[in-house]
Design a protein that fits this description.
CATH superfamily: lambda repressor-like DNA-binding domains
CATH class: Mainly Alpha
Helix content: 55-70%
Number of helices: 5
Distance between the termini: 26 Å
Structural class: mainly alpha
Radius of gyration: 11 Å
Shape: globular
Length: about 80
């Protein structure tokens, strides 16, 4: 699956994790993936498969559209 704007996604992923005050290990454990794999998503070096993207969206309570297309740093409610 190609996400498109991988930089926006990786920035948003890092932002929501920081905002939730969670470590990469904590999030990756919850998503049932390795920390190394999760780290690659935040670095923009890899894109998650669709089922992991859905898990991420649900875990952080952020729509997939917002994760992929918006700059979440500019949203006040996140």
């Amino acid at each position: 699956m190609e996400i498109g704007n991988n930089i926006q996604f990786s920035n948003n992923l890092r932002f929501v994790r920081y905002k939730a005050n969670l470590s990469q290990q904590k999030v990756s454990d919850k998503l049932c993936i390795t920390r190394a794999r999760y780290s690659k998503y935040e670095e923009g070096a890899s894109e998650p498969p669709f089922f992991v993207l859905i898990k991420i969206s649900k875990y952080f309570n952020v729509s997939i559209d917002d994760l992929l297309l918006s700059d979440l740093r500019k949203h006040k409610q996140v």
